[in-house]
Amino acid sequence: MKHKVFVLSMDAMVGEDLAYLADKPNFSRIFKDSARAGKAVTIFPSITYPAHVSMMTGCRPGKTGIYTNYLVGKKKIPGDVPWHLEASEIKVEDYFAAAKRAGRTTAAVYWPVTGNNPNVDWEINELFFYLNEDMEAHFRKYGANDEAIAVVKENITRFPKAKEFAPRPNLGDDFDDFIMGCVCSLIKRDRPDFLVAHNCILDSMRHRRGVFHEKVTRALDDVDMWLGEVADAMKEAGVYEDTDFILCSDHGQRNNVRNMRVNVMLKRGGFLQTDEAGHITEWRARCIANGMSAYIYLRDRSDEETKRAVCDYLKTLAADGVWGFNEVFTAEEIKEKYGTWGDFDFVLNTDGYSSFSENASEPPVGKYDFSDYRSGKATHGYFPEDGAQPVFVARGPSFEPGAYIEQIEVIDEAPTIAHIMGDGLPEAEGRCLFELLRKKPSAD
Ligand SMILES: [Zn+2]
Q1: Where are the alpha helices (DSSP H) in 169-213?
Q2: Which strand (E) or helix (H) includes residue 225?
Q3: Separation of CA 100 and ligand 1 centre (Å)
Q4: Can you give the CATH number for the domain in which 288 is found?
Q5: In the chain, how many domains are there?
Q6: CA 277 to the chain's CA centroid
Q7: Residue 115's domain is classified under what CATH number?
Q8: Which residues pair with 15 in a beta bridge?
């Protein structure tokens, strides 16, 4: 029998959360003899989809092709466009391919950009309210087979929309209770060799309340409850001792004080125009926001004169020291610094307390907007070395109890996971974390 591997990404979990969970009944029991990293430095931009793609491929966003949450390459406006959902959008191999080469069965629950991944057997792709689609049709459209649909149906009372009919206590309008129910059902019903899942509750609580808040702490209590539920499911399936259980996250968050409308400044500089309602009608340069960073796109990338003018203008704003950013980075500088490239031309990074939006209506400074994760009370998207840091903790037959590395990168996770499954990821830019593994890994 192959040993099992379960990867749970808790969106926006940070090192400080582990300190709290250390005293909780389930986390403390499950991860008592764990291997861990002091921090898992993420990629730029520190946002969910690019980070999760890097976590499952071992490559940085330039190489994966996923450098924002949205399909912005076509110059559409976030809010009007779908997020990345299809695995075929990723340009490099992921750890599901490695799992298949190692002869493993695979499953993914709400892990970003896994839709219709040919190497995922049981796929339960993300479904959030914004899609407004028939549930079963959506899950099937993105790769769910009959067994995955059965798992969804088994947990349908835990889906937020159905909560009013649910026999369980209402845990709010987040999806995590449903996601963790599906995880437990998969473990018990289908026993996948390799299972990954992604939870959002800490991320959404932080966006709504701030990085550290009583509501975030209560969400951590829920996380501990779910960890216990998963451990019980593993025990029921007889796989608890033989499972490598990896808990990780994609980015931290920082508190946000104000929202800067870069497009308003570009309008003032003469680089874009809007109608009276503030909709962009014409543009030579525009901003696409990643929360605490922003991409600046040029309509005509070969127009060197506009490029110079935009750069000079943004540098003048940066020098003012009041517009939310203190420096302007060229696409070349970002490629060199973080291995991230795409069809953007400049990058702005937060001054430490400002976020950015695409809003093109005066005035240039806005308040929080909880309808958009990028402008909540806390957010992310900033340079990866800043703020509270993501986590990596693992226990099971492959991991050396008590092993510790001060700092890893999230791109080290996929090569490490591919290795413990008995294969590798030749394209990965990250490395296998041998220091965290047992000297003699179990034979299978
Ligand atoms: Zn995230």
Answers
A1: 176-189, 201-209
A2: helix 214-236
A3: 27
A4: 3.30.1360.110
A5: 2
A6: 33
A7: 3.40.720.10
A8: none
| Cα 48 to averaged position of ligand 1 atoms, centre (Å) | 4
Q: Can you tell me the distance from the alpha carbon of 407 to that of 250, in angstroms, rounded to the nearest whole number?
A: 14
Return the axis-axis angle of helices 176-189 and 146-154, rounded to nearest 10°: 130
Residue 23 CA, ligand 1 centroid: distance in Å: 25
pTM of the model: 0.94
92-141 per-position pLDDT tens digit: 999 999 999 999 999 999 999 999 999 999 999 988 754 456 788 889 99
Phi and psi for 374 in degrees, rounded to 5? -75, -15
Asked if the structure places residue 444 within a domain, the reply is: no
Q: What is the pLDDT of residues 190-247, one digit of tens each?
A: 999 999 999 999 999 999 999 999 999 999 999 999 999 999 999 999 999 999 999 9
> Ligand 1 center to residue 287 CA distance, Å?
21
Distance 203 CA to ligand 1 centre (A): 6
Same domain, 326 and 418: no
Model confidence pLDDT, tens digit, residues 314-365:
999 999 999 999 999 999 999 999 999 999 999 999 999 999 998 999 999 9
For residue 52, how far is its CA from the centre of ligand 1 (angstroms)? 8
Q: For tokens 């037959």, name the residue.
A: 397
For position 373, what pLDDT does the model report?
74
